[in-house]
Amino acid sequence: xxxxxxxxxxxxxxxxxxxxxxxxxxxxxxxxxxxxxxxxxxxxxxxxxxxxxxxxxxxxxxxxxxxxxxxxxxxxxxxxxxxxxxxxxxxxxxxxxxxxxxxxxxxxxxxxxxxxxxxxxxxxxxxxxxxxxxxxxxxxxxxxxxxxxxxxxxx
Length: 155
What we know:
Order of helices and strands: EEEHEEEEHEEEH
Largest sheet: 8 strands, antiparallel
Number of domains: 2
Number of strands: 10
Helix content: 40-55%
């Protein structure tokens, strides 16, 4: 696994996919800080050309650009690119980045954040309930063994 950071564009809660054309135009305006390459199968990847194969990458998928575990410098490039695309940068925990060190909850994500909180609370309750079931089963097993032991001793 890893931590995914995504460049996406939403307007009034609706996703507006990024196009290859606008990504190419935005990258062209970044003074060579990023380059684009097409992989077999048509996948679009963005990378830092000065770092070559050692570069972190962004991949276009379903109208969003994403990177896995980006460092601060790459995250700063993602923010610059997002600005050119009139988009934003969002992490796995639904936090939107203002800078590589500063995040906030974007209004378009508030329903998702609330749904995640509800799901988290439900999951905690399920785990707690399972814990009680295991404890009660263990207690029942101990009591059954004690009862059987007494029967054995009295026989």
